[in-house]
Amino acid sequence: xxxxxxxxxxxxxxxxxxxxxxxxxxxxxxxxxxxxxxxxxxxxxxxxxxxxxxxxxxxxxxxxxxxxxxxxxxxxxxxxxxxxxxxxxxxxxxxxxxxxxxxxxxxxxxxxxxxxxxxxxxxxxxxxxxxxxxxxxxxxxxxxxxxxxxxxxxxxxxxxxxxxxxxxxxxxxxxxxxxxxxxxxxxxxxxxxxxxxxxxxxxxxxxxxxxxxxxxxxxxxxxxxxxxxxxxxxxxxxxxxxxxxxxxxxxxxxxxxxxxxxxxxxxxxxxxxxxxxxxxxxxxxxxxxxxxxxxxxxxxxxxxxxxxxxxxxxxxxxxxxxxxxxxxxxxxxxxxxxxxxxxxxxxxxxxxxxxxxxxxxxxxxxxxxxxxxxxxxxxxxxxxxxxxxxxxxxxxxxxxxxxxxxxxxxxxxxxxxxxxxxxxxxxxxxxxxxxxxxxxxxxxxxxxxxxxxxxxxxxxxxxxxxxxxxxxxxxxxxxxxxxxxxxxxxxxxxxxxxxxxxxxxxxxxxxxxxxxxxxxxxxxxxx
Amino acid sequence: xxxxxxxxxxxxxxxxxxxxxxxxxxxxxxxxxxxxxxxxxxxxxxxxxxxxxxxxxxxxxxxxxxxxxxxxxxxxxxxxxxxxxxxxxxxxxxxxxxxxxxxxxxxxxxxxxxxxxxxxxxxxxxxxxxxxxxxxxxxxxxxxxxxxxxxxxxxxxxxxxxxxxxxxxxxxxxxxxxxxxxxxxxxxxxxxxxxxxxxxxxxxxxxxxxxxxxxxxxxxxxxxxxxxxxxxxxxxxxxxxxxxxxxxxxxxxxxxxxxxxxxxxxxxxxxxxxxxxxxxxxxxxxxxxxxxxxxxxxxxxxxxxxxxxxxxxxxxxxxxxxxxxxxxxxxxxxxxxxxxxxxxxxxxxxxxxxxxxxxxxxxxxxxxxxxxxxxxxxxxxxxxxxxxxxxxxxxxxxxxxxxxxxxxxxxxxxxxxxxxxxxxxxxxxxxxxxxxxxxxxxxxxxxxxxxxxxxxxxxxxxxxxxxxxxxxxxxxxxxxxxxxxxxxxxxxxxxxxxxxxxxxxxxxxxxxxxxxxxxxxxxxxxx
Lengths: 527, 527
Known about the structure:
Chain A is of the alpha/beta class and 527 residues long. Chain A is 44% helix and 13% strand. Chain A has helices spanning 5-12, 57-74, 82-90, 106-114, 160-172, 194-205, 217-231, 233-238, 256-267, 288-309, 336-352, 370-385, 406-424, 430-433, 435-441, 451-460, 472-477, 483-497, 505-520, and strands at 45-46, 76-79, 94-96, 99-101, 119-121, 130-132, 136-139, 147-150, 154-157, 210-211, 242-247, 253-255, 271-275, 277-279, 315-317, 320-324, 331-332, 357-358, 390-391, 397-398, 403-405. Chain A starts with a helix and ends in a 7-residue tail after the last helix. The model of chain A is unreliable at 1-39 (pLDDT under 50).
């Protein structure tokens, strides 16, 4: 294999589960026999082809050195979080007001001392637990859009009913391994209570893993508390069952809302994803090399902070590095520069030895048109071949993340199915090499009816649900549909066929009681 | 660099221009100062990132051995071409009727003895000559569609006026390096005279390189003759100025029409592209490994045949390996199995040491919708990262090649522009690492106005002509366009702005005279 990844990781000579979590017993809420939505697929992907590593050692070292320069000379600020400043002072960093500077190599050493290289997030259905790190990939739906787009309604604000429907769709497909988090913003629920209904929907309408709230430390705490109701307090203390995804306030800042969530999840031994959010030319330099160095600096400090809170706490090194339109200053997606940056970050993350968030199916298009599909394909492929483990925004994303599209969701899911096949690689054995078939068929004949074709046909090729490969005449006579119209019919069919996974009645009642009590404690807040 | 390609080629210890062509003087038709269509871009791409090589030595050796098994045990048939049979008998192959069997390693040895690893195809405008092989990439438009699709007319048969317009578009963009061949079938011209008008259009409306006819040996001869008028007889004998692209009649057959064209071009020292055409399950096994071995066997025999005709004749090792819909038996495109097959073929071609045809922007969609864009992106990327040199069908392809789309052409061209940037890789130097900018801006500020951004902004990111990254409100207020509508406006603008390159009056008259005489020799044939 012409890859550095496997080799580098083997060379490290460290246990694959360095700092990994012990597995304990669950409790009633974990429905061992819950419906698998009739899929025989594994609960996540084990990549069987190598990563694409375009950059050489010298390049990677220069990027790492620049990250060290940034951390040593310029530093990172922690805003409104005295505890984070205290932790870093205690760890030996130079703290000057809210600015923290780090000796060269210090942050990397903290990570490599205790951060798990691989960890498992447990699902309510144990058969759907997922593992991050190494050659494992987990696809999650898009996150955080206030708007919904359907072919029927156009663009409108999202509601809790949309949220539930999107969770149902993600539950049904074998090509998403995770229920996600804020799959859309349910703007019909007060801002301060939304997280309760969102987590309830993930737990009720799916049995896959889910993300908790990060928008306030008490909402993060509620997320962990609801996980404890389902998984049991002791299990949660020893295992990752819920995760939070936070952004750095790039450039070079973490604010107290985000680090407050980080400290809550990490203290509870739950997973954190820390994501530098860099639109080149705005939150970072316009040149990709500098943006990558910045992403490395910010991401390392985020992951290291989790280890200061609780050594061994599971964490994912995230990144979100994009480009900008020269015409409008708007963020652009699927462009070549961030693709290259993603590959660089993948190589750097593997050298660091942490699970990596990359992704996903990005576009700036407002609709699921050719632009959206091209940009999504061109942003997803680098995410996968860079060695990403946690692929957020893998399905549904439109309009730079402002809109979750129902048809886009279905198109992306179909595309993710293709990626499942791609990442399995090509089987080489006597059957696939087909020498007997060549002997049987010979020159000038066709393979359509030969024994080899009959035996292999059913599993030979990915069977797209949405692509139309019919003849022009067949397609025209059936109504000349485009991909979006087919996707529209498909999500309606999926929701019509949907059946919820079972849940233990005691857990159900405990969740309801918790949500009712928490809501009663708060006045509605709408912003 | 974590690649095998460069290393392997260096290990071969052969001169890069093994068998390469000498460069001689041109003549008047070659307009040295012709308009460059206002582009500063190079006339072709020099890839500056490594190939993606997913397969290990053991896999590649098994594929090569299977190809040898096919050639030794089953063999290849040459139909209706006694001269080819004679050449192979003379070369030491076992000829049994039309069936030819090859000792193991024999075909490879013939190729490696004389086939150029790298060669140049000269353009009428010397500044637009292109080089195939090594890390060079040449993008060509789609080839051979009888139908045209525009947003205005829908789908209809192509005409010579469409042909001219497509040549004009390809001439104008810096992202296509070549004028292509049968850019669409001009069905309003008799079949037996079409090639004269097509080549005339390439020579008149463009000054980029072009492909000649392969549909009959005399049409191939006409193609070479027209090239001689433009480039001069002596120059043509010593340099490649026109190329033909032929398919094998897979499985394991070359018919006399195709090998007749091959013998014509190769004898004239002009370039041949030989393309196994394998839809898995029909013209080859349904398992990708076997299809790849077959492609290697057929492609090697095609390239070796050019070397028997004239040692040193320029040739490109082609491939076209696709998948099939399990529902309809129709060919499918952009699917994961052929992507993997393409990467394998890329590694095999580099071990063989020949220029490689891969590509292009394939889709089975009838229209330039999300399906078309996803499939095109997912089929183009492997073509590029597999080390393809001659990327046919890079722009315009719809409906499995039956339709050339004007809007699809523009969307693909924009996408090819992105690929130009991608293949350049990421610059790493003090400027791009931007340490001074980090020092200047610092935590929590933005980079929008800093000196580094001002200096780098203009070249920072690929500037898509067709992607819309505006806000929803801007986009809505401007008419809620989709990508296809923008592409429609764009091709009309390009044609409206078009200015033809100049041509020497003597050459013009000689071409006209030749075409008139040849047409007078033939009765119209319509099928």
